[in-house]
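Hi L.,

You mentioned the student needs an example of a multi-chain input paired with its predicted structure. This one should do, with 1205 residues in total across all chains.
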Amino acid sequence: MKASGAAPEGAHGATPGAGGASSPVPAVRMTGVDKRFGAVQANRGAAISVASGEIHALVGENGAGKSTLMKVLSGMLVPDAGTIAVGGRDVTGWTTAQAIAAGVGMVHQHFMLIPTLTVAENVVLGREPASVGTFDRARALHDVDELSKQSGLIVPADRLVADLSVGEAQRVEILKTLYRGARILLLDEPTAVLSPPEVTELWGVLRRVRDAGTTIILITHKLDEVMAVTEQITVMRQGMTVARMATRETTPEGIAHAMVGREVDLAVRGARVRSEEEARDEGGEEGVRGEERGALSVQNLVVRGARVERAVNDVSFTVRAGEILGIAGVEGNGQTELLEAIAGLRRATSGEIVLGGKVVTNESVRARGDAGLSHIPEDRHQRGLVLEYSVADNLILGQQHRFSSRGAMDRHAVASNGATQIAAFDIRPTDPALAVRTLSGGNQQKVVIARELSRDFIALLAAQPTRGVDVGAIEFIHDALRKARDAGKAILLVSAELREVLSLSDRIAVMYGGRIVAMMPRAEASEEILGPYMTGARKSTAA
Amino acid sequence: MTLLLFLAQTIRIAVPYLFAAAGGALAERAGIVSLSLEGYMLGGAFGAAIGAYYGESAWIGVMAGVAVGFVLAGMHAVGTIRFKADQIVTGIAINLFAVGITRFLLQLAFDSSSNSPRVVGFGADNVGGALALASNPLVWVGVVVMPALAFVVYRTTFGLRVRAVGEHPDAAASVGVPVNRVRYAAVLGSGMLAALGGAYLALDQHQFTDSMTAGRGFIALAAVIFGRWDPARAGLACLLFAGAETLQIRLQAAQLVPSQFVAMIPYVLTIVAVAGVVGRSVPPSALGRTSE
Amino acid sequence: MSGHTGAFAEPTPVPDATARAMRRRAALEEALLPPLVALAVILVAGDLLILAYGEAPGAVWRLLAEGTWGNAYGIGQVLYKATTLTCTGLAVAFALRAGLFNIGAEGQLAAGGFGAALAGLALPAGTPSLVAIVICVGAAALCGGAVGAVPGVLRARFGAHEVIVTIMMNFIVLALLNYVVAAKLHVPETLHTPTIRAGAVPRLASSIEAFHGSAASWTIVIVAAAVIGVAWYLFRTRAGFELRAVGLQPAAAEYGGVNVPRAWRNALMLSGAIAGLGGVNYVLGYKGYYEDGFAGGAGFLGIAVALVGRNHPLGVVIAALFFATLSQGGLAINAMVPKQMVDVLQGIVILAVAAAVPEVRRLVRQAARR
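Structure written out for the whole complex:
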């Protein structure tokens, strides 16, 4: 693909100095960047121009190519085509080391920290103070302490990174770039793992760093963040840079429109699809039935997390038949552990899980499935699919004991089930023998959804059901979940997208710090009402 | 006096372990599995015999042995780092190759399938026991190799980088640490260290015999694992294993414990250590993964 | 209840012809690449070694071919060696399918042979041959499986890394067997047990005269059955479906209701049993007794066999024949070039296949894309 093959908007995005106020030579200027990974064209003719000393948002949906573009800028990836200029100097195809030397620092979405080394060692790694090869530990400690004080990024320099909190770890990441004299700071989805107070603190840090003369590019798909701290915006869609705007001249709706490329955006992402009355009516109706059926309930559940003793801390709720209970909350507040415990993938420390009137707290994954539990897992690449297996085989994963007799697989049943589900859920390509790895993200997720919705179940756990899938598939998946609800299934939905929770749920709970801090009917909920609960600013005993 | 003899014998047995375990600890800390220590040692022993025979000097033998270790480790490094071959498979291939090539060259050079002619060693031949031991410079090097390695790993820039690439190579790469270069250096270093252990063996016995390392490379690996990938602990493990062997030799006449059971000690202890029955042995987290 | 009774009429899938063809091509490439790389490397490296020894490569290769596949005796010897290698290769491949590296085939093979010998010694002399063979073969699998169970259980219970445990187990098992044979069971002046009283498997030569003198026996049939059984288990049974899922993505298998630790344990146990089966070939089919050190590296070579055979049962058989040919060929050429040459070649082949196959595949794909 040639650079000229990009959409015309791409060229528009390249126009330098749209923000205008700063120096004529932009800090960063990339044009016509192509980058391909196998069959995936991650960047096509992407272009961005960032003025010196601004906080610039690079927004787009998951998979729009933002991270790829920034990895090209930071020297981690070599572009197939296109040019990169930093401070007016052509640096196309440079290496990480060269980028660092030129003052480009990247803070990755997944922390690039070495847990067995100390904070100071992590910060200085690659640029260690040393004399004749001997590492000068005292000076490293001293330098990091100094830098920490100067920048206001307070970290314990002599502690092991393994012992840090997430917020502290991120400060170390930023310190690392400052230590290397970063003049251009790239942050990839920095708030994904932060609690709301930590996010606020991060904005303070970024402004301070910016005021000290550093240019910042913030990769995000969260529009509130864009509005909160940035000055200029570049929007990416399907690998192309499709729009460029000044933050104070636009609105979240305007950005969202550019992100998905059509007007229906906010309706699809579902500010609200069902009317409040509808929700209330159905909620009430199902409420009666739910009392009788008691589809899925959790009592005083405590679950241990990877780092914390009580990742889920005394949680109780009931999901009624024909109801979607949505759990809102910032990621990492115990949602993952809660769902894994219900699914049988993580042991409950104490408490009880009841499915269709049967206590399943200590049952195996398979026994829970047989008792009527279906589960769309959070991470389809790790959990939900065996990527090397065929579509047909993946469509029976978890039900292999039903597709076999006396230990031998019933291949005909597997094949015919595959063909049926592929047709019913419009999975493409339609070849059931294809390895699921070769499917697009949306179609992979359809395989998971098809499998979990086609089995005989009472309750469904749906974790991030539309993460990383395209808009068309999102609508399809939302419809499928609503249909299942209308067919009398109980659905527990966990999503990091507040709008998704608002658009699908009949009742909404908020999780914070491992607890359910609020529980309300959909009709009473809104982003404004849920916000304070999600940030831990408010707690209610209603749960 | 018996204690001194016991110590002397223990050290004599421990020296090859110490060299090879130092090599193993270095490579594994950098994230490269070291199943090939046995092969490096065997190659080192062969090189030392050839060098000492043709060069008529133990020092030339040492240098030749180290060179062979360098070459074998280079094969392992290129295979695992450049070509991203499976580290375990590559390690085993190196071992098989070392056995084969030393036999083949033994045949080629000396027309014998079992051993080389007698070669010179260190020190005077007519002094025995502890004195011979003390006159062997390799013994002295062997005794300090683990403390020296500990200094390198924990106190130098190179060591910091070795630990970084062994734990989280992507993180190291993201700050400009040349991950592959650090790994090459660590693996080549490990080959040369282990080969020193082999060279010691051949020079101590004044000849090379077919497969003379007899599993010592794996005992060294066991010491690394039992010592939790820490140079000091691995060194102590080497001394422990060597001490058990000495005890067995001393008590052989008494027939208290069959020698086979003493030989099992390092292996059983290592299994106990990785099973975590007493304090779990946790490897560097990127060990075995040659990632992008 | 679930997918069996879909509400839809069964639509026949529309097979995408090009996708099918591509898949077949990829599978073929996958199967042929390692042996081809191995062959090429052997020819090049072998030529160099032969030239180093001052002989003519053409003549040596001819001698090698004649001494292996050129006469019935040679074929019999190749088949004999391939039988053992098939078992150890299959054992390694089986465990790798579950994502586990079994480096303990050497000890498991020895333990299997010892088990067969013990059973053969314990049975009364008059035991009907078929019954005795079944018992002895079962004993071999049981002993190999018991050795494999140790890393299996330690992995399942404590998460102990199977590579380390299987390596260490080799030394422990070999030392233990050495002790038992040397101290309790040996025929004086030797390191082998007395000859078994029952359970001997007849040589091929007893039915086919041409094989006279070769060690090949009807254990070939037992091992062939094992190969078919393993293939069926892996690709046609529920346990195999689950085992492969565990090997590819343990988290997905766990999500799919598989007890992952149990699958690990079973995989290493069965892997040990398969390797143990190989001991039958030497003990029941060839010598009639257990001898210390009979495994002689066949367990380690099993890793190479699994590698070249791409962990597929059929590939393992082909790779076993390949390495057996090389090994027998070494003896055939010994008059011209030292037989140790094949030891060198084995090491080089493994290195080359491990290193070059991913690289060659990458180049092939790159070329295909252009």
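You could point out the following to them. Chain B has a mean pLDDT of 90. Chain B has one domain: 2-275.

Best wishes,
N.
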